[in-house]
Amino acid sequence: PMVDSWFLMGSPGPVISILAAYLLFVLKIGPKIMENRPAFQLKKTIVLYNASQVLFSIWLASL
């Protein structure tokens, strides 16, 4: 087919490998690394991000 030359589209192997690596990190490695660390304080960052999303949405809707 036409998409065989596209990146990661030749076979399911690369996509399955990426998915497996992601799940391994999220479910096993990440929690092990973070078990003795304090949680990140992201309130100000999240408020700034949300405000920028609102402003961008208002600008986009006004076009």
Output the keywords.
single chain, 63 residues, mainly alpha, 2 helices, flat, fatty acid elongase activity, lipid biosynthesis, ELO_fam, fatty acid biosynthesis, Elongation of very long chain fatty acids protein
- What percentage of the residues does DSSP assign to strands (E)? under 5%
Coarse morphology: flat
Q: Stretches where pLDDT falls below 50 for ≥5 residues? A: none
Mind summarizing the main beta sheet? none
Overall helicity: 55-70%
One letter per element, helices H and strands E, the order comes to HH
Oligomeric assembly: single chain
Provide the residue-averaged pLDDT.
96
Number of helices: 2
Terminal Cα span: 39 Å
Give me the count of strands.
Answer: 0
**Whole-angstrom Rg:** 20 Å
Computed structural class: mainly alpha
Q: How many distinct folded domains? A: 1
Family: Belongs to the ELO family.
EC number: 2.3.1.199
Subcellular location: Membrane
GO molecular function: fatty acid elongase activity
Q: Could you describe the 3D structure shown?
A:
By secondary structure, the protein is mainly α. The protein has one domain (2-61). 65% of the residues lie in helices and 0% in strands. It is flat, with a radius of gyration of 20 Å. The model has no long low-confidence stretch (mean pLDDT 96). It is a multi-pass membrane protein. It is found in: Membrane. The chain crosses the membrane at residues 6-25.
